[in-house]
Specification:
370 residues, alpha/beta, Rossmann fold, 2 domains, eight-stranded mixed beta sheet, 20% strand, elongated
């Protein structure tokens, strides 16, 4: 199968969309499919031997390091040359529209993966564009052949916009990387002096992630905050959380060790369509506290595989963390049960489902209509 992936973000950007596309590309290639990636630049022209076509882009206002793809004839020309059987639109919003038009002109079926709550993102940056953005997203997804959503919350959101052919498709985990065995007592002592519990966040340090909510637990007795990641809000957060450890961006085994060395993982943002960091923490054997909104509603069974807090009440977040601090047995039980729930979510199985179920469905439908 020849698959062209038109994505709103790709390496060297580090975010949920980019990471998901990277895993999809790697697994498709391992399964002997031919792949082309079309992404905003700048960046490498190849990924593990797969060509990456870089198109014109502009930095997002307020987040200049995040490129937004612009209409570019390179999309159409690249698809013409590649001759895909199918076009995969990764989190389409801007460049994805160009890819959709090019695919329709070629008569090639499309699968779109909804991954970013653009309206929620805009609200966090003070942009009152909810109706306009929702209208744009709804029209786009109504025109593709199949839309994949990562959570029931996302499914409900798009269904309310009139999108019909919706299917749940979740994310995989690098289970060989994220594992409790990665826990480092030395790293934990470095963070806490061996006298406190490490309560941490992992992810981009940007306003839409609402990392400032960690201030609600910073003064709890016995807590050492650990903030893992980087982004445009880092300096502001360092001023707000002067006692926290900021590790900067971590990757690979360093990231896995950091996850597993936490005592409690906290996710703060409530606009997540899925929340990959929650299930990576669960795979790492760390109890999770997350907002009762969006993707985490599917990933956390309250009181069984983690705790959920009311994002409208920071006292609720504080209460959840405080409950875990003095209850090592509860922390252990939540972590063990959560790890069982993610034990089969390999990227190979998830991308296998993508190709064998979702790609195949739109290809069969297109063949039947021909």
């Amino acid at each position: 199968m020849r698959v062209a992936i038109v994505t709103e973000s790709f390496l060297p950007q580090v975010n949920g969309v980019s990471n998901t596309v990277r895993h999809v590309v790697d697994e498709l290639v391992d399964s002997h499919h031919e792949v082309l990636v079309i992404a905003p630049g700048p960046g490498p022209a190849h990924h593990e031997g797969v060509p990456v076509v870089r198109v014109r882009s502009v930095g997002m206002p307020g987040y200049r390091s995040f490129p937004i793809g612009l209409p570019d004839a390179a999309v159409r020309h690249s698809l013409d040359r590649f001759g895909p059987d199918l076009v995969h639109l990764a989190s389409p919003i801007a460049l994805g529209v160009v890819g959709l038009r090019a695919a329709r002109r070629l008569g090639v079926p499309t699968v779109a993966v909804y991954q970013t709550d653009i309206a929620g993102f805009a609200r966090q940056y003070g942009l009152r564009a909810d109706l306009v953005v929702d209208g744009w997203v709804g029209r786009l997804h109504r025109r593709v052949d199949r839309t994949l959503v990562p959570s029931t919350a996302s499914q409900d959101q798009l269904a309310a916009l009139g999108v019909r052919d919706l299917h749940l498709w979740r994310r995989g985990i690098a289970l060989d990387l994220f594992d409790p065995s990665r826990r480092s007592p030395a790293l934990h002592r470095q963070w806490t002096d061996g006298r406190r519990l490490a309560v941490g966040y992992v992810g981009r340090l940007a306003h839409e992630k609402q990392v400032h909510r960690l201030a609600a637990v910073a003064d709890l007795p016995g807590v050492q905050l650990v903030v893992i990641g980087d982004g445009p809000a880092r300096e502001e957060l360092q001023r707000l959380l002067p006692g926290a450890v900021f590790t900067g961006m971590l990757r690979g085994t360093d990231l896995a060790a950091a996850y597993a060395s936490l005592d409690v993982f906290v996710h703060t943002g409530d606009s997540e369509t899925f929340c990959q960091t929650v299930q990576e923490a669960q795979a790492s054997g760390v109890p999770v506290v997350a907002p009762a909104a969006g993707g985490p509603l599917d990933l956390v069974d309250p009181g069984r595989t983690g705790l959920l807090f009311d994002p409208a009440d920071l006292g609720s977040l504080r209460g959840c963390v405080a409950k875990l601090l003095g209850a090592p047995g509860l922390r252990h039980d939540l972590a063990v049960r959560a790890r069982v729930t993610v034990a089969d979510r390999t990227w190979a199985s998830v991308v296998g489902e993508l190709a064998d179920v979702h790609y195949r469905a739109v290809l069969d439908r297109a063949a039947a209509a021909a």
